[in-house]
């Protein structure tokens, strides 16, 4: 042949025109589109969610320190090309001109604050402002405005400084970062800090260095600063500061990558089916070409080049459609997401291209490569050499390449292994069971009516090809079941993480004499309130008689820790005892249970004697147990817990928690009017934000699930249409012989439904295995056998495959048999 | 032109070995027309496949235009076919995805012959299909399809043309038309023609007539 490239182009065009390439090209296009769309969507969602989560910190990375952050650290931030900001927070009494006073949580800010997220301040104009207060001005949280009875323009006194109220603080990004920073917020400019005279050596102040930038720069800074941290200094990133969010994001990412990998697998299955069909339909054509003088090399070259064109075309088109698809998915979430970040990066396209190459090379090529070996004798003897059984080696190579592709895509060995394992189970069991059952059905069939006999005989005669189809259907259904099951567990878990009515306000400093008044307040307003726990503020002074330094020493090491103490005789829910044992109820032994991080900070182990100070009293207790606390739970958690009897000896305060609907926020002010000495921690904003993120991610997951379901449906359609040809031919002959429509359609329906329910059985076995591996190993969810899926999988398999098959074969009963016979 | 010596073909089946051709001796000269007739299953299609190099014999030699094709591998035989051999089949064997013109062009393109389009158009017009160049096989009648196949066979100007039951799928009148075309073109092009047929009227038009009986060939003189 003169020019193989031009010839292959012509071949491709002619095949295209003849409608031969439709399924193969659709499958390739689907593969590229799904991969580009999902990985693009995941990238974009991740960019945006990370950005949004970063707003919890008002930065990407924060250095929190009990003393001023060294100058050279700030310089390092600047030389690394990162954005820099700073906050200084402390508690201070704020006084107004009308002599009202209130303990506020003061935050002094400067420069670029906030680096992530934004302030929202009511400054009296129509639109809320997002600027920080000018020197001399302060923003007050609404409750502080209420307590101090001030308005914009009034003066307030913070320490020695006189400042003017210039706005009401509606929201701030890092509102939750000072978890136990009591009191409503006051935001001031750090230029006024010296004038207050509050920040002195030894005063309890938290300095925060805010850093934002690209992940590479952040990594470099983190690596540089981490070894230099001393006691009282901590690095905070999104994951660490908000464990709830971090874990949520991690699981969502895992799920989306899983979905993407399933998309690739489904597409590969579709391509395998389509290429087989393409090869079968081209066997005669190749025999003719060979009889006309085409060599094996010519044939292979032609089809290799044609496939290359097809691959390139699907990469280009698939990238385009994939981009549009991720855009559409993203826009569907646009209401909830701050759609600031528009880029999806290069990786999705690269992944799409590599996917296309792997699919073409390992799934589409083998059946076509075998076309070169078709005997030209087929032109006179049709029965000669059927070139097209799928070889075990091809399947192994395909599985290996797919495994590598998924590994590269998800960067997760467990996920890849779980999915490939499930597919292996489905394939292995599939051929075994399908052969066995198909043999069995024949036995039944010979005793059954003619429709059944026809259907079952047909299925058995096409034994290998039926088994292949059952396996392909099984894989498709299995992957969809896995994804649906994982999605359901994930969403359930998230719903449980913050159930409706999770307490969003904590009340501290309830004196025993106020207890009755507090309970009356809540019952009158029909607000549900949690149990009252004793709470005392105290300090750990010494471990085993060795006093802890009361502030950070230059050489680091343990130091005194102040904390909220509580008492209970039952181990708190969601706490796991990792060392020691819980005490028996009613004990009056001097014991204590510590949170493990806290225990590490003070350097205490089970059996150690701690010296505790509450108010002016000092006493000694033995460490009975160390607990791991689930900080994701959003429940009251304590570092230090004593037996009930022990804390009773001390004058202590009570604390409790309650849930307020957003529109009942004024109750907080009312409560403080009734009992002014209370301290109320407001977590409603934080909880609402976490819920928002969970909702967004859940919706994203639903969307991606739909995309994958569509991909799965296409695989089923490809599988059914691949097997329609031979059935059409056979049915046309039967019809010519006088078989009625009912008989034929009945036989086809039974045949496909039987294959569908077999596929359903395989799918369930595979999906239970994969589901177990994925949920317990990868997503760290509990696994339960989804019994409800069993009848559903079998029934749906029968209905869907039976329906699709019957629909695809309906032509045979409507078209004249002669026409069908001639066209085939 | 074609010469075989001691040509035999055996195939193994599950039960036994089947001898399809036994020691065929055959010689056909350049420009001759020859018919091979015989009952179904007598082995005539097998012989045709061997002569055309579509299959390999179990023993013996086949000289095609001076080359012993038994010594060639599949690709070499394919190249030889593209240069010297044309085919007409009972079931036409047109590629369904290609138009009439493209079907005729295909062997020319495979052989790398220049002006494939012009030559194909010329031959299609010689078989009376110049109005149907861009029709697909499924829109052509059986007779028209076979005429396309004849145009395709002659377009690459082979030295030898094999025809396998060329009228087998056609009614008598259409078959007669196709035969006229086949012999007319054969005469004009000076091609050697070997055909396998059941059709005695077709066989009678050939200069030589061979009868195949149970794997053995005899010339009717």
Describe this entry's structure for a reader:
The complex is a heterodimer of chains A (824) and B (221). Chain A has 824 residues and is of the alpha+beta class. Chain A has four domains: 1-56 and 242-411, no CATH class; 58-240, no CATH class; 427-500 and 684-824, no CATH class; 505-682, no CATH class. Chain A is built from 23 helices and 21 strands. The longest helix of chain A has 53 residues, at 684-736. Chain B has one domain (31-56, 75-220): Rossmann fold, CATH 3.40.50. Helices cover 36% and strands 28% of the residues of chain B. The longest helix of chain B has 18 residues, at 172-189. The mean pLDDT of chain B is 88.
Furnish the topology, listing elements before pairings.
The complex is a heterodimer of chains A (824) and B (221).
Chain A lengths: L3 H14 L4 H33 L6 E5 L5 H9 L3 E14 L4 E11 L8 E3 L14 E4 L1 H7 L6 E4 L2 E11 L13 E5 L3 H4 L9 E7 L2 H11 L7 E5 H4 L1 H49 L4 H37 L14 H23 L22 H19 L2 H34 L3 H12 L1 H35 L7 E6 L4 H10 L8 E11 L2 E2 L13 E7 L7 E6 L10 E5 H7 L6 E6 L2 E13 L10 E3 L1 H5 L4 E6 L7 H9 L4 E4 L1 H53 L4 H38 L10 H21 L1 H4 L2 H7 L1
Parallel strand pairs in A: 3-8, 5-7, 14-19, 16-18
Antiparallel strand pairs in A: 1-9, 1-10, 2-3, 2-6, 2-9, 4-7, 5-8, 6-7, 11-20, 11-21, 12-13, 12-14, 12-17, 12-20, 15-18, 16-19, 17-18
Helix pairs in contact in A: 1-9, 2-8, 2-9, 2-10, 2-19, 8-10, 8-11, 8-14, 8-19, 9-10, 10-11, 11-12, 12-13, 12-14, 12-20, 13-20, 14-19, 14-20, 14-21, 19-20, 19-21, 19-23, 20-21
Chain B lengths: L1 E11 L4 E12 L4 E6 L5 H8 L7 E6 L2 E2 L5 H11 E4 L11 H12 L4 H11 L15 H14 L4 E5 L7 H18 L2 E5 L3 H5 L3 E6 L2 E5 L1
Parallel strand pairs in B: 3-8, 3-9, 6-7, 7-8
Antiparallel strand pairs in B: 1-2, 1-4, 4-5, 9-10
Helix pairs in contact in B: 3-4, 3-5, 4-5, 5-6
